[in-house]
Design goal:
The chain is built from 21 helices and 28 strands. Among the domains are: 32 residues, no CATH class; 114 residues, D-Maltodextrin-Binding Protein, domain 2 (3-Layer(aba) Sandwich), CATH 3.40.190; 248 residues, Dipeptide-binding Protein, domain 3 (Roll), CATH 3.10.105.10. The strands form 8 sheets. Strands 19, 20, 21, 22, 23, 24 and 25 form a 7-stranded mixed β-sheet that branches. A hairpin with a 6-residue loop joins strand 5 and strand 6. By secondary structure, it is of the alpha+beta class.
Amino acid sequence: MRRLFFVLLTLLISVTVASAGGTGADEPTTAGSEMAMGEPLGLYPEYFQFGSLTEMEAVTGIKLIEFGEAPDLAALVASGDLDPVEQRLPEQPLVVVRNEIGTYGGTLRTSHDGGAGDVVRTINKFMEEMPYTYGPNYDALGPNILLESEQLPGGTEFIWHLRKGMRWSDGELMTADDYIFWYEAVALNKDLAPGGIRELKSGGVMGTMEKLAEDELKITFPGPFGYFPEQIAIFRPGPFLPAHYFKQFHPEYTTEDDLNATIKEEGFSDWVSLWTAKRTHWAVENPDMPHVRPWIMTTDGRAPVNRMLRNPYFWKIDTAGNQLPYIDEVESLLIADQEGKKLSVIAGDIDYLTGGVMGMTADTFAFLKENESKGAYNVVSSPGDVGNQTTVYLNLAHPDEVLRDLFLEKDFRIALSIGIDRNEINEVLYRGSRTPTQVRPNSPFASNPMFSTYLEYDPDEANRLLDGIGLEWNSNKTKRLRPDGKPLDLLFGVYTAVGPIQVQAAEMYQQYYSDLGIGSTLKPYDAGAIEKAFADEAYDLMLAQAFGGGKGYPLVSRRGLVPLPGQLLWLSPGWWEWLFSDGAEGVEPPDDIKRLAEIPVGFYAEGDAAKRAAMEEEIFEILVGNLYVVGGMDADGSINFAVYSKKLRNQVGKIWARYHHEASAWYLTE
């Protein structure tokens, strides 16, 4: 039996822990206070957490027999309004390991602008809790909500062991029934999940979930699914729901009269709308929904002041036995514009804010760094999972056969790539903060020379290639002619949700291509229209973005570049239709694209990470080696940043993996 009780990497504290817990030292330990983010330090640097008390004792020889709690909770216990901490924690709490044993108290101040994106970045992301977790550097997978996971021989069955005695934020027990409820009420429900749950599929077929005991589940798939643990580690909002709360909103668990009365009382037209409003996760929050996060929302996420108060039933402790979180509450202030947020940071009114909320640009980064020495904050950056911007997609299965044949000429795609001056675009629009590159992953093989091909601006060579494939000029040499004699005028779509600067980039691309004799008309598409534009093939070229994937988010889990069931292939909608209709629709793709569709099947089945990496590399050899998509520029990792108050301690991990930081272990000094 293969155990997935993972041994994890990075940080551990450098203080000696006692066998009896406490309420947190009056003064924080000083060991590691000046350390760089993510730097290993401590008695056991190979761990950043212990999955259980049993694991902690096995590694350290220390047995925790008493537990501490925040003073406000201790007061509630003393008054009889709250159960003792030992009864609120599971039998095997997760033990978070950090540089310092923190102190309780304080309010963590952040900010939002009222939009969904801000709420995600400033509230949801650093509070997420999943069955498994990645380490602060995204370099190891370990248990989290799950106590332990077993993969049975053959790779088709997994046993999940839950934390016995773990509780929802309202104090109700979290058991296997909550997972089964999610599986039956959501995953198998055609109204809520018409196509099932992609992350629970092997070979396109949904797995089954079976309750073995109150704290034990079995998940079975029709074929091997070695990637399943990592898939579930990035699947949100998680394969569980508080059944005791949600049954009242589902027609299979309550009476029709009661459900209709609730729908009417809440002001909805149907039960699906009601359910969707109650089951929140990303942006607008339902404060009444029980969860297992460290703080409890008291507002909807878009209020002028969003407040989150300590969850008294949180299931993690520190190495001295103190229940987390240390910080009493999180407060997010509504500051509508990015400039206002920057000024609030400089004024010392913000304790934590990700750079994305302020506009993750070179100018913003430089501005905050310039004022860092006189401010009460630190700007911390790290390389991240940065997508390729100003990426050009061609409609490679174009309904117009003349354009289809033209786009399938590799020399035409090379001409499009070397016909743009990425360095000029970088300097004019991005202040030199981008890195010209073909679409690449955030992985060890990102340094492969293939990602640097066809990047140098060479209009003479581009013109030579266009001449070579028969694109003649018109009589006054202002525009090239298609093989059928028509002017070469292309519909150039622009995915504007990437940001306003994308339109400016498109205008520069348009001029470069015009200089080569390629005419174009720009047409903007926002986030709500882009998928339809691809599906309807309402474009010849599309300037958008591409994510090459990385640890935790491999290319096979992202839309756009790899053929996946249920996710439109931006690379070529016509090819995608053919691949997933068994050739009944669309346009038959080349053999290497057919191979591209096969790779994810083997990837998900494979349990060996090294073999999966080789499959990812093969994907890029097909995509980049053939230049099926023309890369633009990656954002520089040095401006992938966040700001932290100098009073905030125990923050570790890569900025881009902010929701694996374990914010419950952060604490504030005076």
